[in-house]
Amino acid sequence: MDRIWAKIWAFCEYLHLGSGDRAMNDEATRCTVETNADNDRSSTEPGSPSTSQPKHKIFLSHSGAQKYFVENLCKDLEDHHRFPFFDIRESSLPKGERFPEHIFEAAQQCNLAVVVVSEEYFTSKWPMIELVEFVRAKSGRNPNLKILPLFMGLSHSEFSDQTRQEGWFRKWAEWAEEDRSRINVAEWKEALKEVKAFNGMQFHQDMRKFASYQKNVVRMICKLVSPDVKWYDAHVRGRSNICKVYSEHISTLQPSGRYKVRVIAYYGVGGLGKTTMCKVLCNELALEFEDKVCHVELAPNPSSNLKLLHLHEVLKKLTRTSEEVLRGLNEGECKDILYKSVSWEQPAFLALDNLWDDTKSIEHAKMFLQEAAFPEGSVVMVTARTLTTLGYLGIDKSQCFEVPELSKEDARNLFLYHAANGREYVNKGDIDMIDKCVSRCYFRKSEKQGCHYLPLSIKVLGMHMGSLSGSDPKQWLESLPRVRDFDLHSPEENPVFGVIRLNYDRLTPEEQALFMDISCYRSKSRPFFNSSIYWTRLREWLGHVHRKKWEEIGVQLQRLKDKGLLEDVDVTSGEFSMHDLYREFAKLEVQGKLKGGNFQSRRFVYAYESYPFELEMMPSGGVWEKLVRVGIVEKVPSLDGKKDGGITSLEGIQWGYCSNVVVLKLRGLRNLKGVLNLKGLICCLRSLDLCGLDKLGGVEGLEDLKNLAYFQWIQSEDLIEGLFAS
């Protein structure tokens, strides 16, 4: 075996891949400071196991005789985001510092000690000191430490040869005579037994398989040790549940398609944690798939540059294609690699995150899902906001699941992570107050589906509370009424609603108007009618406003559901439901509290208690050209109380500048007096809804509203009578 290794080493020297005299020079360098070793050695006496993360999870222990192999092994591991302790790396042994303390610390704390077994290893003092240190750590503060012997210069049988070992023992005894305080021959013999006890990897005497052996060593180490570089997920609450739910779901699915790949999909509204789930699973599955994991965050209508970027990322992480090769390839050349089985080495996990419903996004995702030549055993996970969108990829419903929900405890802990830096509260009173705050983020999915916590809104609320009220739950609770809209003075839009806006901004103007009509401008007299009458009247109203047959409006409602803005739609009855968060978004949007910009750009106005002063002004061009919906509302007073003050006149509003308004809704203006004069002004008006205007003397100009198709005028007394009748 020694002769075989000598041939390999000579061959490497010929190719200028080795350094020649590493063994002797390194030993000489090490020995110059051996006298300081005991002073620098940290205590290795048995004690409680260490819980701190080591700087280096892997320790490459060698004699120097196999420098070429170890250097290349180190580089391969670094390419796999594992950065071992290697004595020629400055990150391991910084220049100008005494190296024994760094070696001892790394040896004691590592998770895996890779021992390159050779004759030189057991006849060199310093490698043996490292080996003894591994064994000491394993029997003391680091009981989970593993030792991986790599039989390079010695075969198993040569290593176990008693005559050979007795030669090592004699050499150790000679050293001990000179240095009894640091060399215990009995302890070194026990360390040798530990090497034999661990199942190692032997290089068989075939130089043609040398590269294959090195690759298998890298794969084995990657199986045993998680990567040093990964997405930070310590802040994720519900992580174990995500992994548990995924494991349960994937176990029920069978491989399918040309390449026998398992496909699993998850759906849920924006902010529910789909991206977090993808990243957590990439971390969790890195060992199972030997680092062949990749997360791709999709985008609506992806550009050519973005699609090429995604291809590069997938090929770099999941195939054998190097970054240098990819750098010069175009999209077509990358696809050619993606579609060839020879490009792939082993099963992979690919997460296609946040699939959109436009044609470009669907085709881009199909390229990975249906054309990539994944090895058998691979998994492709897809996430989207709706089940319908997943269907566009041809994913069967049996493969689709809702995103796992946060438990109450996980929701509380997520809030505390952002509001109080993860501080723990044990007082029941404090916990109750915290839960009341967190309940602000407990949204109804729809009338039929119950409620759930929204992680993104919990994060935003926690960050806001922490900056506003410190870490006192009582102050948080007192501040809660003031944070309904979170930080309205922030120059940036609230992240929760920013996520929803991605969906909303992709709607056509007509679809946006329909969404706002059913969210804010529809009649609110639902409690006074039975369900069927309410939905019938709503269908009629939408038909008048949009000048379409119900069948056409039903198709548009279904499109809103497909885009994630509605939860349930029954086209036959006209019934639908909406997630609380989307309804909240609509309310804040029509109040002008979300997106910046001037009044000139607004299409929808819904004012509470007072109307925007801009309605009294003349816009440039003489008309608020984009304004199509106006609502002015005051809260309805309690049944046993009267409300004084409020809006008493709308005479200041220049209705003539609102000539493009299609829907006008005035509600609860109990003290509005005089006559509402619309004569010859709002020529496009199709719906006029007056409710609770008890003191209004009349409406002028109705006969001039040639397009008016819906008119309702209900007094407060009528509302109260309807309430008791219902």
Report on this model:
The chain is an alpha/beta fold and 726 residues long. The chain has four domains: 2-224, 3-Layer(aba) Sandwich (Rossmann fold); 239-402, P-loop containing nucleotide triphosphate hydrolases (Rossmann fold, 3-Layer(aba) Sandwich); 408-484, no CATH class; 505-725, no CATH class. The chain is 42% helix and 13% strand. The protein has 28 helices and 20 strands. The strands form six sheets. It has a five-stranded parallel β-sheet, sandwiched between helices. The chain has a five-stranded parallel β-sheet with strand order 14-15-16-18-20. A hairpin with a 6-residue loop joins strand 12 and strand 13 (576-577). Helix 12 (239-250) crosses helix 13 and helix 19 packs parallel to helix 21. The longest helix has 17 residues, at 162-178. The radius of gyration is 35 Å and the shape is elongated. The protein starts with a helix and ends with a helix. Residues 34-55 are annotated as: Disordered. This is TIR domain-containing protein. Residues 44-53 have a biased composition (Polar residues).
Note the topology:
Elements: H1 2-14, H2 22-31, H3 37-40, E1 58-61, H4 67-79, H5 99-109, E2 112-117, H6 119-122, H7 125-139, E3 146-151, H8 156-160, H9 162-178, H10 185-197, E4 201-202, H11 210-224, H12 239-250, E5 262-267, H13 274-284, E6 293-297, H14 304-318, H15 323-326, H16 331-338, E7 349-355, H17 359-371, E8 379-384, H18 387-391, E9 400-402, H19 408-420, H20 428-438, E10 442-446, E11 450-453, H21 455-469, H22 473-479, H23 495-504, H24 509-521, H25 531-546, H26 550-562, E12 568-569, E13 576-577, H27 580-590, E14 604-608, E15 629-633, E16 663-667, E17 674-677, E18 687-691, E19 696-700, E20 710-714, H28 716-725
Parallel strand pairs: 1-2, 2-3, 3-4, 5-8, 5-9, 6-7, 7-8, 14-15, 15-16, 16-18, 17-19, 18-20
Antiparallel strand pairs: 10-11, 12-13
Helix pairs in contact: 4-11, 5-7, 7-10, 12-13, 14-16, 19-21, 20-22, 21-22, 24-27
